[in-house]
Write a structure and sequence with these properties.
It contains 22 helices and 37 strands. It is α+β, with helices and mostly antiparallel strands. The chain has six domains: 98 residues, Alpha-Beta Plaits (2-Layer Sandwich), CATH 3.30.70; 173 residues; 87 residues, no CATH class; 132 residues, no CATH class; 105 residues, Beta Barrel (Barwin-like endoglucanases); 95 residues, no CATH class. One of its GO terms (molecular function) is RNA binding.
Length: 756
């Protein structure tokens, strides 16, 4: 059949480094020859190509581009014949493991149209991970059982909302009322859709959804009985976030058991209906989502995952240093991917992997640590990685190229952990600005912890209207804070939280270091907080010690250089009756002491004010030329708690020229004072024209970049040396970004730039 444009698709496979790609291409060609004899459908294949990755490590993946030369079928029917034959042949012993992913053309390989809302009965639902391109390692499975007791599974594709919902109705054996659960999967979190197409009516069509994050599990909450009309449509039900699925009378799945899985398998009985769903799904998912047909093998590993993790913790970890233990935990805790691979490995291959780990740790700990973190990043990005093959390759690479990171002055490397209801994710050490505690104690024994929900959003989003909010927070957060976490033989305990961490749901943990310091002893060193009865205020005061600061000069607490004076007060508040404090949080510093601070911090100009932390004080210091010598004057209002162990003047920020804007309130006040509206309209028009001129005028581009971008990029020096700012693609992208950001803010928060 002639086509105006040939139909194309591609074949992807994941191979071991030593394997010959011809073994895969010859298997594909044999399948296509069978297809030609059976259906007179001829396919031409290209030479195998190495598939490029997007900056994240991937195993060696090859692809072949295929073109349908002749076909007796219409375009989409030809695709149907090929994919069914592909899934059928892949299950034959002669082709097992050789036929992996068949990826259709997203534009022409799927039918258009369809409804925006489709509800389908599921045969079963499973959770697991991919091992290579052809194996699904199944950890948990839920079947639809029509008899009592059991589950009824319903899958609803809300294409208009780009949302998938799975409803699980549980009929209990223990005579409890029927329980309804809900799993929600946004289309934006679907990275891959792999379809194992059914070849006969007795089999099921399996759709594997490779997800960025595990879907949130919710349970239906019964409305008050006082309601006159009880909702019957599931769209009108109330659901609360829960951490377990099922009941002990049937089967109980904890959140920790399910959350490590990145793949959801949906099994359907009616193939024609599901194909329509896939067609519509291909139109509603983002362009980066991969759709492929593959003959998948399902291997059960659920009962062995915990045993494998326990074996690693008890048997292997004691032979590794802490840094390697932490990196190995980062791989093993980044979902079930690596652990499932270890379970499915043959015994000899598993022993070789373990021996390699120990040998690599003895040879070069830094290279092994970087190799493990590289694998963790690949798993996080949902790349297909065979750990036992990848590790030796990456280790050899980092042995040649690894250089210990250089940390800037005033910074240190700190490890970070994300705690979710189902998982604990270990992140590589990141550069972090120093604070008072990190300067005096070993950052190697510190740990930054952030609490998130399973979709990596703040817990407050999903628990805001929860009917048992306190119990959920106690289970997810408080329990972790009470027990801490053990990694590589170190027991990390709760220390405190910085002010920014309190807003971001984070804390600091600390393990006993080489000098014997613990979280409790560090809190005593930080100061005396016993006089603060309010828990929230006490946490905020402790957070002062964790503000990101630069250490400048030392000012003795009990010498003549530091003086505490009363605040300037006056007047009375008409309601509270308290005096107004006109010097709240504002102290003074002499000129000579300020010059020493600037010299210590390598500041080119002496500022008029600095924001500081000093012992138990916080606030601003303004230069007072009348103070003689090295003098520091602090107010009563600046003292927040008692501290006698720190006498360093720590600087957070210095005064400097800043961009000034007129906001909605200032504009309203100025209009009330008689400023005409046309003045503000002219300012707005001038600001918009400035952005347009910046794309063609060098001087305007420089002014916009210096005003809105700032940073460390030397735009002025670049222009003085002949660099054309308005023509450079990167600089133009910066200008476009500034324009979009500023114009976007005007819709919700009008601001007019005030020219200096």
């Amino acid at each position: 059949m002639a086509h105006s444009k040939p139909l194309t698709f591609s074949l992807h496979w994941n191979q071991e480094g030593w394997e010959n790609p011809n073994t895969y291409t010859s298997a594909c060609q044999r399948v296509f020859r069978m297809l030609e004899r059976a259906h007179n459908l001829r396919v031409q294949t290209s030479e195998p190509l190495r598939k490029l990755n997007n900056g994240v490590y991937n195993d060696q993946t090859c692809q072949v581009l295929c073109t349908i030369q002749t076909s007796p079928f219409p375009d989409l029917e030809a695709y149907d014949v090929i994919r069914r034959h592909w899934c059928l042949a892949g299950k034959m012993p002669a082709f097992q493991g050789r036929l992996q992913w068949l990826v259709p053309d997203r534009n022409r390989g799927f039918r258009r149209g369809g409804t925006l809302y489709e509800s389908i009965q599921l045969s079963s639902m499973s959770f697991g991970t991919f091992v290579g391109f052809g194996i699904f390692a199944e950890s948990h499975k839920i079947d639809t059982i029509t008899t009592f007791p059991g589950y009824t599974l319903t899958c609803t594709f809300k294409h208009g909302e780009r949302m998938l919902q799975v409803l699980l109705e549980l009929r209990h054996k223990c005579h409890r009322p029927t329980t309804l659960y809900r799993l929600t999967v946004p289309y934006g979190s679907i990275l891959r859709v792999i379809i194992d197409d059914c070849v006969d009516r007795s089999a099921t069509t399996d759709i594997f959804l490779h997800l960025q994050t595990f879907p949130l599990l919710c349970k239906k909450v019964e409305p008050p009985k006082t309601w006159r009309i009880q909702p019957t449509n599931p769209e009108h039900f109330f659901f609360d976030r829960v951490l377990e699925l099922g009941c002990s009378c049937v089967s109980l799945f904890e959140s920790q058991d399910l959350g490590g899985n990145s793949v959801m398998k949906l099994s359907f009985r009616h193939g024609q209906v599901e194909r329509k769903v896939v067609d519509r799904l291909s139109r509603r998912c983002k362009r980066g989502t991969t759709f492929a047909y593959a003959p998948m093998q399902t291997r059960e590993v659920g009962s062995q995952l915990k045993q494998a993790r326990h074996w690693f913790n008890v048997t292997l970890m004691p032979h590794l240093s802490f840094s390697c233990c932490y990196a190995l935990n980062a791989v093993l805790q980044q979902g079930n991917d690596a652990v499932a691979q270890m379970v499915l490995l043959q015994q000899q291959a598993f022993h070789n992997f373990v021996n390699n780990l120990v040998d690599f740790a003895r040879a070069n700990e830094g290279a092994l640590e970087q190799a493990l973190f590289c694998i963790r990043s690949a798993i996080e990005a949902r790349s297909i990685v065979n750990v036992h093959v990848t590790l030796p390759e990456l280790f050899r690479k980092f042995c040649l190229a690894y250089v210990p990171p250089k940390v800037p002055r005033g910074s240190c490397l700190v490890r970070r952990v994300f705690v979710t209801p189902s998982c604990v994710f270990f992140l590589p050490p990141n550069v972090h600005s120093e604070n008072r505690v990190l300067r005096c104690f070993d950052a190697e024994y510190a740990l930054r912890v952030s609490f998130r929900d399973d979709n990596l959003q703040h817990l407050s989003h999903s628990l805001m209207f929860h009917r048992q909010k306190e119990e959920m927070v106690d289970t997810i957060v408080a329990k972790f804070l009470r027990t801490g976490i053990e990694v590589g033989g170190r027991q990390f305990k709760f220390l405190a939280s910085s002010c920014s961490q309190l807003r971001d749901h984070g804390v600091w943990l600390y393990a006993m270091d080489r000098q014997g310091f613990t979280a409790e002893s560090i809190r005593r060193w930080m100061g005396d907080f016993s006089a603060i009865p309010n828990v929230a205020k006490k946490m905020a005061r402790m957070g002062q010690c964790f503000s990101s600061t630069e250490e400048s000069v030392k000012v003795p607490l009990h010498g003549g250089n530091m003086e505490e004076v009363p605040d300037v007060v006056g007047g009375v508040h008409p309601v509270s009756g308290k005096e107004f404090t006109f010097s709240d949080g504002i102290g003074m510093i002499s000129t000579s002491l300020m010059q020493k601070v600037c010299k210590k911090l390598d500041l080119a100009e002496v500022p008029s004010a600095i924001q500081i932390r000093y012992a138990g004080y916080k606030g601003m210091l303004c230069v007072n030329p009348e103070l003689r010598g090295d003098k520091l004057v602090l107010r009563d209002s600046m003292r927040k708690f008692s501290c006698s162990n720190s006498d360093s003047l720590e600087v957070i920020k210095v005064s400097a020229p800043r961009t000034v804007y007129l906001n909605r309130f200032l504009i309203t006040i100025l209009e009330q004072l008689g400023v005409p509206s046309r003045v503000f309209l002219c300012l707005q028009q001038k600001m918009m024209l400035t952005f347009a001129d910046a794309l063609v005028c060098e001087s305007t581009a420089l002014r916009v970049l210096c005003t809105y971008v700032g940073g460390t990029l030397p735009f002025l020096r670049l222009q003085q040396n002949g660099f054309c700012l308005a023509r450079d693609p990167f600089v133009r992208l910066l200008l476009y970004t500034v324009y979009r950001s500023t114009m976007g803010k005007r819709r919700c928060r009008p601001q007019l730039f005030w020219p200096g």
